[in-house]
Amino acid sequence: MKRVSRVFLFELQVFTSQMANGARLARSFPDTTFVLEHAGMLEDTSPDGWRKWCDGMSALADCRNVNVKLSGLGTFENSYRYETVVPIIKETVGFGSDRCLFGSNCPIEKLWTDYTSLYRTFRKAIEELSEAEQRDVLYNTAARLYRI
């Protein structure tokens, strides 16, 4: 009888103020694969809020066992606009495209957009990435993490 190896992921959902603790948790469990939900939930887009989010994302990026789901990017604005998602995606892909994956956060985001518009906006937002990086974000990373 063949034994099946089970690998679990830790889906990490934190606000900016909790990112340092999230990084500490990831460092404490280096053999656990973490997936940061909603690209760290940027809830404050003021210059100070952006700086704190970037600092938190940098701390999490330093943990090689942390990956990022690019989902829920318009949640705190109740919209999914190109101008909103591009800076978040550009900053997050700094983790490495092999650690980033697309996510829609539907049905929640259906409150302010439809899936087709969301996906088109996301694709436009990643146009500047190389084809290999786009494949990572749209397929390879998810296939590896979720074994699909």
How does this model look, in words?
Strands 1-2-3-4 form a four-stranded parallel β-sheet. The mean pLDDT is 93. With 148 residues, it is an alpha/beta fold. 43% of the residues lie in helices and 11% in strands.
Overview features:
single chain; 148 residues; alpha/beta; 4-stranded parallel β-sheet; 5 helices; 11% strand; globular
Strand content: 5-15%
- Structure summary, number of beta strands: 4
Written as H for each helix and E for each strand, in order along the chain, the element string is EHEHEHEHH
Please state the structural category: alpha/beta
Helix content: 40-55%
The dominant shape is globular
Radius of gyration, CA atoms, in whole angstroms: 15 Å
- Order of strands, widest sheet: 1-2-3-4
Give the terminus-to-terminus CA distance: 23 Å
Give the mean pLDDT.
93
**Which residues form runs of ≥5 with pLDDT under 50?**
none
Largest beta sheet, briefly? Answer: 4 strands, parallel
| Helical segment count | 5
How are the SSEs ordered, and which strands pair?
Elements: E1 9-12, H1 19-28, E2 33-36, H2 47-61, E3 66-70, H3 82-92, E4 100-102, H4 115-125, H5 131-146
Parallel strand pairs: 1-2, 2-3, 3-4
Helix pairs in contact: 1-2, 3-4
